[in-house]
Amino acid sequence: DLKNGMTLELDGTLFQVGMSTERRSQLLRARELAYPVAKAEIRLALADSRLMGELQELIQSGTLLQRAVAYGNGELEGLMAQSGYEQFVAADTAQDDVCIVGFTSGTTGEPKGVMLTHNNICWTLACLREAFETDTFVGQKVVSYLPMAHIAERATSHYGNCMNGYEVSCCPDPSLIATYAREVHPNIMFDDCILDDAVNGA
Question: Which of 53, 68, 192, 198 places its Cα 20 to 30 Å from the Cα of 80?
Answer without folding.
Answer: 53
